[in-house]
Amino acid sequence: MPAVPADIAAAEGGAVPFKRGKKKLLILVAAALALVLAAGGGVWVLKQKAAQAAALAAGDDEAGEPEAAQAAKPEGKGIPVYLPLDPFIVNLADKDVDRYAQIGITLELESPVFADRVKAYMPAVRNAILLILAQKSSRDLLGRSGKEELAEEIMRESVRPMGIEILAPEPVGGIAAATNGTEKTAQDEAPIKTPKKAKKVAVRNPVQHVHFSSFIIQ
Fold first, then answer.
1. Could you tell me the CA-to-CA distances from 207 to 9, 33, 88, 161, 162 in Å, in that order?
2. N or C: which end of the chain has fewer CB within 10 A?
């Protein structure tokens, strides 16, 4: 009986089907691995896109925050306009002795336009201030509170020649009923009715402050 070739015997023994099965397994593993890599790549791309979107959103917020903060921030005060007046020398209202005051005054105004208006009314403005000073005594002007009250009066009276009426602060206090230790009668307990006055509208004063550059009392 002639000898059977080795390759034919191997084929009949099933060696070839085993190699084919191994190749199919490798192909399936490679396909699965490719799917896993593709899925992983897709997730990575999605993560990158999400990170980019978050970075863009953060950049928009950072760019918008200064604008919002600037919009919420109140506007700063502009440069004040100062108008120095010639010094005032006036006799004070002291009765026991002759005393006079030498006072330097500078008006702080709201705008250069109003400064020009005050200059046009300067004789009347100085007259209004002199009338205020002539009514003061040295005792009225020596303390800090007296100087502050004088500044408020000058603020009101210096704009009156220009037709600007500024309301004076209402005095604090009232009328107290004196009983002298006796019982109150029905008439005493009855409230005192005062006529109602028409409410005046508050007007903005273009004179913002009154500054004293010198204050000498002799």
1. 121, 85, 19, 13, 12
2. N
> What residues does 212 pair with on adjacent strands?
105
Asked if residue 141 lies in contact with residue 202, where contact means CB atoms within 8 angstroms, the answer is no
Extract the tokens encoding 7.
Answer: 């390759």
Q: Using one digit for the tens of pLDDT, what is the confidence trace for 158-191? A: 999 999 998 887 665 544 444 444 445 545 555 5
> Left (φ > 0), alpha (ψ -120 to 50) or beta: where does 186 sit?
alpha
Return d(Cα 140, Cα 124) in angstroms, integer.
24
Burial of 194 (0-12, 13-18, 19+ CB in 10 A): exposed
